[in-house]
Design goal:
The protein is mainly alpha-helical. It has two domains: 1-168 and 303-321 and 329-352, no CATH class; 180-301, no CATH class. Helix content is 50%, strand content 3%. It has helices at residues 22-33, 55-62, 74-80, 89-97, 99-114, 121-136, 143-149, 154-161, 164-167, 169-176, 181-189, 195-211, 216-228, 238-248, 255-263, 274-286, 292-295, 305-309; strands at residues 2-4, 315-317, 337-338, 344-345. A two-stranded antiparallel ribbon has the order 1-2. Strands 3-4 form a two-stranded antiparallel sheet. The longest helix is centred in the middle third of the chain and has 17 residues, at 195-211. The chain is elongated, with a radius of gyration of 21 Å. The protein starts with a strand and ends in a 7-residue tail after the last strand. Mean pLDDT is 76; it is low at 1-53 and 317-352.
Length: 352
């Protein structure tokens, strides 16, 4: 089981410096790769986080512009991806740039975890970091294996993925989405699936609907059915994502269902106020094309893999023999706190 170390100090403070571009790799990784034997290549800057570093750019950086630089086998980088003591910037950058080489191995780890296989300590870390890399790469072949993994029991996912489900899973699922909306709706409708997973996947579906990749009418019908058929139990976290979907998509005609669910006690109390729903609904009506409404709440895509993954540099591995340690339960405690706009921001610990 992996957990976030308490009060860990970040090794970087400038998010813009973490973009996986050729320039950033040159600045952050060339010295390590070249063991200080050459000066860093000064490449033109780019501010486009979607301008992912290509394999050719990586070869140019490491080869000082010369042709035929040998990047070495991708297996070496996949090995380093599991590193715990030092954040593996170089290995991550290689896997991003060489996604066609790295993706099959990363998908295979997801598939094994989805089947319930016991993973080695290294493969657990490859799983955790690999889903970010595949999500950032928009690798649609990951969609099926990932959804199968997300159907595993909540405690098992907690051990494998730590805070990934609540921190980033909505963006990862959106990134690997292959167009099969029914698969998303099926998972969200399944009461046996962990409530925090359903919350994240419904958040992904909300963003994908806003972006036009899921038909708005299909999403509206599903949200109505979610209420009518009570697809989640009372006080289930999925109700939070449900009412937020209605608000963020500006579905004013479904607002009475939200008030009904609230009055019936379906929505977990203490996470937000009904006024938050009304505020978000008005914001959607006034600025329907504003993507910031989604990004501020952790919805969208993984645009900067290195930045999204940096929190894993503070992970520590705990074996099964440590599970009953008195100090373990004090790690990774996260509480709900309002953001600057007064809305919730949380990554809850599992208590059910």
């Amino acid at each position: 089981m992996r957990r976030l170390l308490p009060k860990a100090e970040h090794c970087r403070s400038d998010p813009a410096s973490l973009r996986p571009s050729a320039q950033v790799f040159a600045v952050r990784a060339a010295d390590e790769l070249l063991k200080g034997s050459r000066s860093v290549v000064d490449l033109p800057s780019t501010n486009d986080s979607e301008d992912a570093m290509k394999k050719e750019e990586l070869e140019t950086v490491l080869g000082r512009g010369g042709p035929g630089f040998d990047l070495g086998p991708i297996e070496d980088q996949l090995h380093d991806l599991a590193r715990e003591g030092q954040f593996p910037d170089v290995a991550i950058a290689h896997c991003i740039a060489r996604i066609e080489e790295s993706a099959p191995a990363l998908r295979a780890v997801i598939a094994r975890a989805a089947e319930g296989e016991d993973l080695s300590r290294d493969d657990e870390m490859r799983l955790l970091r690999g889903i970010y890399i595949l999500g950032g790469a928009r690798d649609t072949r990951t969609f099926g294996p990932l959804l199968r993994l997300l159907r595993r029991p909540g405690r098992e996912l907690d051990d494998l993925l730590a805070d990934v489900v609540t921190e980033s899973m909505a963006r990862i699922v959106a990134g690997v989405f292959d167009g099969d909306a029914d698969a998303l709706f099926s998972l969200i409708s399944d009461r046996s699936v962990d409530e925090y997973v359903r919350d994240a996947v419904l958040g992904a579906a909300t963003f994908l609907t806003w972006e036009g990749r899921i038909e708005r009418d299909r999403m509206r019908d599903f949200l109505e059915r979610f209420h009518t058929e009570r697809l989640a139990g009372d006080d289930d976290f999925a109700w939070i994502a449900w009412l937020e979907a209605i608000a963020r998509l500006g579905l004013r005609d479904l607002a009475p269902l939200v008030h009904s669910a609230w009055d019936d006690g379906r929505v977990p109390m203490g996470m937000l106020e009904l006024s938050d729903f009304e505020d978000d609904l008005r914001a959607a009506e006034q600025s329907p094309n504003d993507v910031d409404r989604f990004e501020r709440t952790g919805l969208g895509y993984i645009d900067d893999v290195l930045e999204a993954l940096e929190w894993t540099s503070h992970l520590e591995y705990f074996g099964k023999e440590d599970l009953h340690s008195p100090s373990l339960k004090n790690l990774a405690r996260r509480v709900a706190e309002p953001d600057s706009a007064g809305h919730k921001s949380f990554a809850p610990c599992r208590t059910k």
